[in-house]
Amino acid sequence: MKVASVQMFSTDNVQENIEKACRYIDEAAAKGADLVVLPEFFNTLFFAQYQDPVYHNLAEADTGRTITAIREAAQRNRIAVIATIYEKQEAGLYFDTAMHIDHTGAIVFKYRKVHPAAVLSLEKYIFDMARVSTPMRLTIGVLALAYVTTWDFRKQRVAWRSMGLSCLLHRMPRHG
Fold it and tell me: Which part of the chain is the CN hydrolase domain (predicted)?
């Protein structure tokens, strides 16, 4: 499997960021990648360090312009994409959500990152923590991966869930 991990500088212009991400998907596909991983909140500036409700306006549903454009790019290029956005499930319920979009453009899985109590971080005020993380299982061809990004205090429980997915590779961040 060939994976393209994108690094990009995002600005406050959401449309330009979306277009830039789609160009990176096109480029990765042209170079033979099977999977493109976009940066967290690639479509906007990272805002979680600020406690200002105005940033809730950046949240989108999975049917919004960002994921719609990424799904179209994935389908056009026949490539899988992991795209993380600030997702609005409903009024007042927001998540830091990674979406696995397959080569047909379908969202096959959502991973909603769980944020800890975070003494020095404002993320606890922005994202919902009420749910336990569920690992994302990616299947591309014959390869199965488990993807978890969490600093969740229930990390061991999340790891066990990951192991139960019968995957060949498990990626979890490490504390310390």
Answer: 1-176
Residues 28-40: pLDDT tens digits? 999 999 999 999 8
136-140, strands of its sheet edge to edge: 136-140, 143-147, 169-171
Query: How far from chain centre, in Å, is Cα 34?
Result: 17
Query: For the chain, where are the alpha helices, taking DSSP H only?
Result: 14-30, 65-77, 123-126, 155-163
What is the C-alpha separation between 59 and 151, in angstroms, rounded? 22
The answer to whether the Cα torsion of 66, 68, 71, 76 is positive or negative is negative
- Show the tokens assigned to 174: 């490490």
pTM of the model: 0.72
Q: Between residues 68 and 140, which one has the greater pLDDT? A: 68
